[in-house]
Design a protein that fits this description.
It holds the Pfam family PNP_UDP_1. This protein is about 25% helix and about 30% strand. By secondary structure, the chain is of the alpha/beta class. It has a single domain, classed as Rossmann fold (3-Layer(aba) Sandwich), CATH 3.40.50.1580. Helix 2 packs parallel to helix 6. The chain is globular.
Length: about 290
């Protein structure tokens, strides 16, 4: 039996941080970072059956073209992803009354929709990027046993290419769900590696008043290539989502609307339009799957 201190429930029996009961979520779940973006997606729904929020974790579940879908805000960073994915898994794969794992396990389909800047000159603003791999620079997933799901070849190649300081922890590389990749992919979508940092400033190479450990890291990342897979963008969630989902038996895919191109110094003239187009594209692909 899983102890009360390990799986914390609210007085109504809901999981502690997300404030959800099993019946509140669909098998198809869209992640966004910003709580205000949840309704940017659910505004397209035919109906909404459930809505709740606790802290930065906002969830709405409803119907889009006959498909039941949940949309959830995760907040920022891999530490929040650790909470969200573990508690979602508990909702479907642990009996919350007996506190025992279920004999028959459920696989959720999790798609992250975000915005990002491109690191590559040939990936223009207003385009879409699919993360074929998540490259974790954050170290969170190393708290788990990940050898069976990580791509050691990519990890070692990245470490050698960047002369990575192992005192920061060993990067990890996790592939996306092939099932979701086939459902969502099209000729319009660029694919590559999404790097996941553990912070916004120093970990992503930004310098305000503090010097950083490797001032050239971003330039090294720009020209990293593994079997034709380049690092397309840098953010703070994808690798953690991929890692925990793979370990727990869920399908995960990360999509980004590119609203800036760092290589060319350009920014989208209408970033909201790009995001809305990615939302509509993803919803229609899910509805038809």
């Amino acid at each position: 039996m899983i102890q009360n201190s390990e799986l914390i429930l609210n007085p109504d029996g809901s999981v502690y941080h997300l404030n959800l009961l099993p019946e509140h979520i669909a098998n198809d779940i869209i992640f966004v970072g910003d709580q205000n973006r949840v309704e940017k997606i659910t505004q397209f729904f035919d109906s909404i059956e459930f809505s709740t929020q606790k802290r930065e974790f906002k969830t709405q579940t409803g119907i889009y073209k006959g498909k039941r879908i949940s949309v959830m805000s995760t907040g920022i960073g891999p530490d929040n992803i650790d909470i969200v994915v573990n508690e979602l898994d508990a909702l479907v794969n642990i009996d919350l009354k007996t506190r025992q794992p279920k004999e028959v396990l459920t696989s959720l389909n999790i798609i992250r929709i975000g915005t990002s800047g491109s690191l590559q000159a040939d990936i223009p603003v207003d385009s879409f990027v699919m993360s074929k791999f998540g490259l974790g620079l954050d170290n969170m997933l190393r708290s788990y046993l990940i050898d069976e799901v990580s791509n050691v070849a990519i990890e070692d190649a990245f470490i050698a290419h960047t002369n990575w300081d192992i005192r920061k922890g060993k990067p990890y590389a996790i592939a996306c769900s092939e099932k979701l990749e086939k459902i969502i992919e099209s000729d319009k979508i660029f694919k590559g590696i999404t790097a996941t940092a553990g912070g916004f400033y120093g970990p992503q190479g930004r310098v305000l008043r503090l010097n950083i450990q490797d001032e050239e890291l971003n330039n090294k990342m720009d020209n990293f290539d593994f079997d034709g897979n380049r690092i397309t963008n840098l953010e703070m969630e994808t690798a953690a989502i991929y890692g925990l989902s793979s370990l727990l038996g869920h399908n995960a895919l990360s999509l980004n609307a590119i609203i800036a191109n760092r290589a060319s110094g350009t920014f989208s003239e209408d970033p909201y339009k790009a995001v809305d187009e990615l939302i509509a594209y993803t919803l229609n692909k899910l509805a038809n799957s």
